[in-house]
Amino acid sequence: MPDGSIFKRCGCRHPDTGKPFGNDCPKLRRPNRAWSSEHGHWAYQLELPPTADGRRRQLRRAGLPNRRAAADELDQARELLALALRGDRRRRTDIADLLQAAVRAKRPLPEVNRLRQRLRGDGPLADTPTLAEYLTGWLTHLTVDANTQRGYESITRVHLIPHLGDIPLDKLRTTHIRAMFAAIERRNDEITAAKASTDPVIRTTVTGVRPTGPSTRQRIRACLRKAINDALADELIVGANPAALVKVPADRPLPIVWEDERIQRWKSTGEVPGPVMVWTDSQVVRFLDYAAAHAPDLHPMWHYMAYRGPRRGEACGLRDSEVRLHRRETTINNQIATHGYTAVQKPPKSRAGNRDVALDADTVKVLTAYRAHRAQWQLAAGPAWPDTGLFFVRPDGQPWHPSAVTQRFRRLVRKAGLPPTRLHDLRHSAATIALDAGIDIKVVSEQLGHSTTTLTRDTYQSVTRRMHQDAADAVAKKINQKRRKAG
Q1: Which of 138, 131, 135 is nearest to 168 (CA)?
Q2: Which of 49, 122, 304, 376 fits 92 for a cystine, CB–CB 3.0-4.6 Å?
Q3: 193-218 residue pLDDT tens
Q4: DSSP 3-state of 275
Q5: Correct CATH for 133-245 of 3.40.50.2000, 1.10.150.130, 1.10.3120.10, 1.10.3430.10
Q6: What are residue 58's DSSP bridge partners?
């Protein structure tokens, strides 16, 4: 069997084909053909015994810091393979499986002495990592955007490792996951009771502590399901994904419309009926009229959001080249997201998020006037005007930070004397008004960038009173028609 080889690799690509150079990059070698010390990383490969079904395979690890590390690990792999008795093909295959699994999971190779002890018996050779060990390695090799990475790391640190970390990966069952969520619910009850306590000392123990809400519980399950799916794909474990078999209640807060009785109650008590409060069309008009007079720099963006329902980041990231007012259309293919407080431009997260949004005549008029005002700002700024490529910008030409847009919105709502709503709820208002106007649910779903109409229906099953009254009248009319025919 070949003894293996040590070499260097890099991530460079061929300028003509775009394909990776691998270990053929010209920068990897010096003129004397020795390996360069300034480019690439070390790797090794070793021919392994065939799989149980006779397929050829190699052990290959890249990303090692120096040649010594590559040589040491290659020697360790050879020594591990040599532990099997001569002619014991089954054990050689088992050891090769173990080495391959370790490299795939980006874990160290097994210790020689430990494996030698295990070989004295006839049991399994592999030490399955605990969930904590697996998740720690899994997080370091994820290829997701920074916000998703941050969310996975937080969920793993706060919930998954404390509750499930000691369980071997292959022993994780649905009962463990259900027990975790039951413990989270108990902790929620403790936090709620402590916050309501009359004892200030007890209330102090939960200062700044929030219960784990339904959305977070859904994200915990989704993170665990993703991690275990990756373990299944890497053949670290076999069987079904237990996280996929656990159901977590999805108590999505439904929009509640700010109707007159609710406004009166809010004015007298300060109570807000729910977390998602939606303005009526008359309240939207009132806000936009107030914004036009008191925040003319942001009024056009808010008008666009209230009429057509893009998300905050999509409005802030709307490209100038994707606004075609002569065709009454915009294309959403960019957004400004926040990673912490850092604003980052990136494409929408889903395929449905990339979409064309038709414009009404009023919105075209507002955006046309805004474009003219923006041209005046640019003329006044002269060469200092930045070329951001964005449609909505500050008077100095810089991009709007999404958090700044939200803060301005909150202040203006208070000054206008309107019932409180979130900036994101302008999107809900746009959807609710569209449904109230009789627009088909499929059209509204595409306008909002929802992946399915199911999401739209689930979110907006609570809409305006008039729609419910129209439905009630339609039922009564149908029954009365039957009654008249029977009479």
Answers
A1: 131
A2: 49
A3: 999 899 999 989 988 888 998 889 99
A4: coil
A5: 1.10.150.130
A6: 47
